[in-house]
Amino acid sequence: MFAYFRSKGDLATMSRWKMTRIALELNFVNHIIPVPSFAGFSYLGWILKHYGVSAGRATMAQIIRFTTMFISLVFIITIAVIALIFDFGIDRTVIIISSSFIVAAVGGTAFLIFMIGSHKRLVWFSNWLSRVVNKVVCRLTHGKKRQFLKLQTVECFFIELHHDYLEIRQDKKILIRPFLWAMLANLLDVSLILIAFLALGYWVNPATLFIAFGLSSIAAVFAATPGGAGVYEAIMVAFLASAGIPAGVAIAGTLLARAILFMGTILFGYLFYQLTINKYGKISNSTSV
Questions:
Q1: Which of 42, 45, 57, 222 is most buried per CB count within 10 Å?
Q2: Which of 194, 165, 190 is nearest to 73 (CA)?
Q3: Residue 277 CA neighbour count, 13 Å, CB half
């Protein structure tokens, strides 16, 4: 994300230490607050507005983050699936699930590009989103709050995304560094899981771990639990077990890796998160679109 911000001329004076601190805060928010994807989008937009970054650009940076993570993950998983095809000991169901994941990820990315690439479609979506959200909020508040989202604000937000998208199309090299960082992030995440299993004295094929990690991570993004807790672990264990790994080992290795991740995230992220809250105050409803 910060590679993208720098390429657009934002946060030029921000130190790498400050970027690291904000990244750790965002990690904390994504792993602690329910519905992590929405929490992260809201929090980053709120904190970066204090550094002159617009909400639309902050959102585009996170869209690029998720998109490059997905694309790099699909790239790695495609290689992993090809490797597993030649492993005759692997269950064919694993190959089918993995291939389906690749198709779904590519399809989802294509749909996102399809929506952001059209001014007309974004205006339509803005109208639809404002209308639906306001109706839902009106019912939940029994008519006390009839306008939660302002159409003009929502349209401006999405149009800004559209303009950023057009600029990216004109200079695709902007995405090279974010993609390389995303690739490294995925490799390190899977390395943590692999090390956890090695600590338990069990070797797991990295190709299998990449596929399990991809499926679990996608599901966790949309889960309504902090950091996708419960959903992530269930899918990870189920896939590893279907790949021939003993259920006990799959559970132990997955929980060990997740426990280490959560401990590190809470320990470092919470400290910086509280310092930010003390400095700027709590995030308010006014920061929403």
A1: 45
A2: 190
A3: 13
